[in-house]
Write a structure and sequence with these properties.
This protein has about 200 residues and is mainly α. The chain has one domain: Growth Hormone, Chain: A (Up-down Bundle). Helix content is about 75%, strand content about 5%. Strands 1-2 form a two-stranded antiparallel sheet. Helix 2 (about 15-30) packs antiparallel against helix 6 (about 170-185). It is globular and about 55 Å long.
Length: about 200
């Protein structure tokens, strides 16, 4: 249960990032349709590479460190996107590179999530365990995107503001919020079975 809550909260923090990056490129920076579509493809390439290299990465660094690194990327990438403004050289390609890394991390997170869910499931209960945990993940993904949509549509966020000489738009503000939410989720690291393997719940990795 606690691991599902962790997954839900972290998914809410990060899973609206990909569509938000594309919106930022189109409306915040003013990139052409071809650039936005290319960056979208770069993001998909990140997913493909993440799923492809997950096995070797897991064997190399282990489940614990892989999940900790993934969480760190879930904080760092939105913050770096917050800093990626119009004044930077080639902001679209910087954002595309960050989206690639973000989707790579997302693919690794999904694989780790599935593996940990199966390790927590008691024999004969794997289907119910996967359904339960997937429900929480999709709840987090959906709620994160709904909240993002509400903040964009309500006009609650300033269209433009300055931070230490950096001109920041509402999309960048959302990136910053996502980074802080990911930072807040650090308090739930103890919910990851691989991080704290000794607990009362059933766990057979």
């Amino acid at each position: 249960m606690s691991f599902s809550v962790y997954v839900c909260c972290l998914s809410a923090a990060f899973c609206s990032l990909a569509p938000l990056v594309l919106l930022y490129l189109k409306k915040g920076i003013g990139c052409g349709d071809n650039v936005v579509q290319t960056v979208s493809s770069v993001g998909i390439a990140g997913l493909i590479c993440g799923y492809f290299f997950y096995g070797p990465l897991l064997a190399k660094i282990g489940m614990k460190w892989l999940q900790l690194i993934t969480h760190a990327l879930y904080i760092a990438i939105p913050f770096l996107l917050f800093l990626c403004g119009k004044g930077m050289p080639a902001p679209a390609w910087i954002a595309g590179g960050l989206l690639f890394i973000g989707n790579f991390a997302f693919a690794c997170f999904n694989c780790s999530f599935s593996r940990e869910t199966l390790a927590l499931a008691r024999p004969g209960n794997s289907v119910m365990a996967m359904a339960f945990c997937q429900t929480y993940q999709q709840l987090g993904m959906g709620s994160g995107r709904v909240i993002t949509s509400f903040l964009l549509g309500s006009g609650m966020l300033a269209t433009q503001w300055n931070w230490h000489g950096l001109s920041v738009c509402n999309y960048q503000t959302l990136f910053l919020i996502e980074a802080f939410f990911g930072l807040f989720c650090l308090i739930m690291l103890f919910c990851i079975p691989a991080v704290v393997p000794k607990h009362e719940d059933y766990y057979e990795p």
